[in-house]
Amino acid sequence: MLRERFWERYPLQELSTEEWEALCDGCARCCLQKLEDEDNGEVYYTAVACHLLDLEQCSCSDYRNRNRNVPNCVHLTPERTAEFYWLPDTCGYRLIHEGKPLPSWHPLQSGSKATVHEAGISIRSFAMLETGDEDLEDYLMDAL
Ligand code: SF4
Ligand code: SF4
Fold first, then answer.
1. Sheet holding 43-49: strands in order across?
2. Is any ligand 1 atom within 6 A of the Cβ of residue 93?
3. Which residue of 32, 57, 109, 137 is most buried, as measured by CB atoms within 10 A?
4. Cα 29 from Cα 119, distance rounded (Å)
5. How would DSSP label each residue in the chain?
6. What pLDDT score was predicted for residue 43?
7. Which residues have CB under 8 Å from 25's CB, separation 6+?
8. What is the rounded end-to-end Cα distance, in angstroms, of the chain?
């Protein structure tokens, strides 16, 4: 059971597993391949999504085994908030970690999972699935 407006009342470390999962808006932006500038650590997103992503649903097709099948898939936990800087600035976990409100299109605010797609936040409309043959630098995005 989700506590009423839990995201405004409790820190990430005090959320139940169900509440933690509900913070994810289902955008799948974190499943895009990224390139990191070795000099300054800056992270750049590409339009190429992990091959395990179900692009239509914007969900992982093998969530349970994701860390085994995709070694660089990062399992977000309350203990890893220091790493959240690489997440997109729309991500529910990053927003709450930074003390910001959830936007109106977030499913917890709207009551519908569809709003993340309708607002153009999810990657469904523009991403492609990786084949392994891409040169990721060709797919760098200016902004998400
Ligand atoms: S970027 Fe954040 S909110 Fe979006 S799918 Fe990934 S974890 Fe969920
Ligand atoms: S393994 Fe699943 S959760 Fe991880 S990046 Fe790929 S599609 Fe996303």
1. 32-36, 43-49, 128-129
2. yes
3. 32
4. 14
5. -PPTTHHHHS-GGG--HHHHHHT--S--GGGEEEEE-TTT--EEEEEEEPTTEETTTTEETTGGGHHHH-TT-----GGGGGGGGGS-TT-HHHHHHTTPPPPTTSHHHHS-TTHHHHTT-SSTTT-EE--S---GGGGB-S--
6. 92
7. 90, 91, 92, 105, 106, 107, 116, 121
8. 32
CA of 144 to the centre of ligand 2 (A): 18
What tokens were used for 66?
A: 């994701």
- Candidates 97, 122, 126, 90; CA nearest to 10 is 97
pTM over 0.85: yes
pLDDT in tens, 39-71: 998 999 999 999 999 999 999 999 888 888 898
* In contact, 115 and 61? CB cutoff 8 Å: no
